[in-house]
Write a structure and sequence with these properties.
The complex is a heterodimer of chains A (316) and B (272).
Chain A lengths: L15 H5 L5 H41 L3 H6 L3 E2 L6 E2 L2 H32 L2 H15 L3 H20 L7 H25 L3 H9 L4 H12 L1 H17 L2 H6 L17 H8 L8 H34 L1
Antiparallel strand pairs in A: 1-2
Chain B lengths: L1 H12 L10 E10 L2 E11 L4 E5 L6 H7 L10 E9 L2 E2 L7 H7 E4 L10 H12 L6 H14 L3 H4 L12 H10 L8 E5 L7 H14 L4 E5 L3 H6 L3 E6 L2 E7 H6 L4 H7 L5
Parallel strand pairs in B: 3-8, 3-9, 6-7, 7-8
Antiparallel strand pairs in B: 1-2, 1-4, 4-5, 9-10
The chains are: A mainly alpha (316), B alpha/beta (272).
């Protein structure tokens, strides 16, 4: 601790400030410790990603190596894990996921972009702040609440409105997922609009463009990469959502042929079946393979979104 | 001095249409940003077909006055005005006037060149496409495009890359493009807010020359910080201070024999 003594004593023959240059005082130590702490936080995301992928892979690795027929898994139309002999055809789940996501986007894209354009370009002052708070609150609603809405609100509405027997179907799940994905998409889309320099709007308005013409001809085209990223992240959100779709989709393990058919998704199937599958058994391992599939798809979607946004920034 | 001579010499060659109605008539215009009053009862008549310079120290209201003439000030949302601004006899703040139509007839050039993030072609044709009653044919558009770019002496430099983004042009070319894109809708008044302040001396000279060439065809109101520029590139000068017009006279007279003590102090560089 002698080295930390303050004021530092100069060795003979040296001026006092030369010793002071080598003083490791409390600020120096604090800096070191905090650097390590924040670095641990910073790289933890990467560590967790790697660890999670490693875990998922390890749980299914034996099946993947010895018995996986990827073609049969991806194109098989019968998902019957508990029948003898079991059949692991995931196409109904993949189709259900894709169909529900498609319906969700058809609902979320106009809603989210509309909200983003209104909040970002038209609303002013207090109104704008309130709307933004509203959107953030909507994004924070737990997914099980959305599931309940699908189960108890949307179901009778769909049955009455369309005169169908089954109210828990692709349409129901799509609506619920669309409403869930819209707030986060709106937030990202609004960020993209905000990044368009105001001088462009001013220039277009000075040329006699109406507000809507400015949005349509200048702001939206310029924000296109950010808007694409918003859509992709919304798709990722819809893909990964579990409990709300499980509750609203009817969870029928067959390929849906219309939006009024019940359907099952990859995530919901994992959630519904993992607890009942014997640990280490084929069924258990196949569910982990589905998990890897989901992981890879969402990872690809997010990377693409990131790549679009970055590519744009480099170009600008 | 050589510059100022060359510009002024051409004045005499131009046959100015003196008979036209005033380009802009401002009557008792007061303007507030929230509670801050930026203009106090400004009354001013800008003649047609000439270049009028607005000069004065920072914050004197010259840009505010300029931006009131095409109502672009209203973008801010917290601006209120009293009084009238007439462009070619029409009250732009009147109950029937729409800011959109006003801006079609009153073009504006900004301090920093601000081409839209579109191609050179789409920039020039932007306002025409907004306002045209009938969609122009391809040939008509090409003709308009060439004429506008020729008028700003840009045609030869960009004719081979009309579909490139306008933002890749040099600042000087961008600013000329920003002038060119006003021309297809045939505006009568051009407002310029320190159009050369982001440019280097060479580019400044080029843009000044261009402004001087457009004179006569358009009535030009230009805000400038640069005394030398006001002197060499304007016919009349308006000196403003603290949101009021102090003096308005022919440029030669203002610089040779200013009437008000504030004007001479400012011109001599004692403040501002």
């Amino acid at each position: 601790m002698a080295a930390n003594a303050y004021p530092p004593t100069a060795p003979p023959g040296q001026p006092a400030w030369a010793a002071a240059l080598d003083t490791r005082n409390s600020a120096w130590w604090q800096d070191l410790v905090m650097r390590v702490v924040v670095m641990a936080g910073g790289i933890s995301a990467i560590l967790f990603i790697v660890a999670i992928f490693g875990f998922i892979a390890s749980q299914g690795i034996e099946f993947i190596v010895h018995r996986l027929d990827l073609g049969a898994l991806l194109t098989g139309v019968r998902w019957e894990p508990t029948v003898e002999p079991p059949s692991y055809g995931a196409l109904p789940l993949i189709a259900g996921t894709a169909f529900i996501t498609l319906v969700a986007m058809a609902i979320a894209v106009p809603l989210a972009f509309g909200a983003a354009v209104y909040v970002g370009e038209f609303a002013r002052g207090k109104q704008r702040e309130w709307l933004k708070i509203g959107i953030e609150l909507l994004a924070a609603i737990p997914s099980v609440v959305w599931g309940v809405i699908g189960l108890h609100v949307m179901k009778p509405v769909i049955q009455d409105l369309f005169g169908v027997q089954v109210g828990l179907n692709v349409l129901n799940a799509g609506i619920i997922l669309g409403l869930m994905a819209a707030p986060i998409m709106a937030t990202i889309a609004e960020d993209a609009l905000k990044a368009v320099p105001d001088t462009y709007r001013e220039a277009a308005e000075s040329l006699g463009a109406t507000k809507w013409q400015v949005v349509w001809k200048v702001v939206l085209p310029h924000a296109r990469p950010g808007l694409s990223a918003a859509v992709l992240l919304g798709i990722g959100r819809a893909f990964g959502e579990t409990i709300a779709v499980l509750m609203a989709s009817g969870h029928r393990l067959m390929i849906p042929e219309s939006i009024f058919d019940s359907a099952a998704t990859l995530t919901a199937t994992i959630a519904a079946e993992l607890g009942e599958a014997a640990v280490g058994g084929d069924h258990y391992q196949v569910l982990f393979v589905l998990g890897m599939l989901l992981f890879v798809i969402t990872f690809a979607i997010n990377l693409t979104a990131d790549w679009i946004v970055r590519g744009r920034r480099r170009q600008a | 001095m050589a510059d100022s001579l060359s510009l002024k010499t051409r004045t005499t060659i131009l046959n100015l249409p003196r008979h036209r109605a005033p380009a802009i008539e401002v009557q008792d215009l007061s303007l507030w940003y929230g509670t801050f009053q930026a203009l106090h009862d400004v009354t001013l008549t800008i003649k047609s077909g000439i270049v009028t310079a607005l000069i004065g120290p920072s914050g004197c209201g010259k840009s505010t006055l300029l931006r009131s003439c095409n109502r672009i000030n209203e973008r801010l949302g917290y601006v209120s005005t009293t009084g009238t601004v007439k462009v070619l006899g029409h009250d732009v703040y009147g109950p029937e006037a729409s800011a959109i139509q006003v801006r079609r007839h009153v073009g504006m050039v900004f301090q920093r060149p601000n081409p839209l993030p579109l191609s050179i072609r789409d920039n020039v044709l932007f306002s025409h496409r907004l306002h045209a009653e009938r969609k122009a044919t391809r040939a008509e558009e090409e003709a308009m495009l060439e004429q506008a770019l020729r008028e700003v002496l840009l045609w030869d430099r960009v004719k081979d890359r009309l579909d490139r983004k306008a933002t890749v042009l040099s600042l000087e070319e961008q600013q000329k493009l920003c002038i060119a894109r006003l021309l297809p809708t045939k505006p009568s008044v051009l407002l310029m807010d320190e159009p050369c302040s982001a440019l280097d001396p060479e580019a400044t000279r080029a843009v000044e020359n261009l402004i001087w060439d457009l004179r006569g065809h358009y009535s030009i109101l230009i805000v400038t910080h640069n005394m030398a520029q006001a002197r060499r590139a304007s016919d009349e000068c308006v000196f403003m201070l603290m949101g009021r017009v102090v003096e308005h006279s022919e440029t030669e007279d203002m610089f040779v024999a200013p009437q008000k003590p504030e004007t001479s102090e400012y011109i001599e560089g004692r403040f501002g």
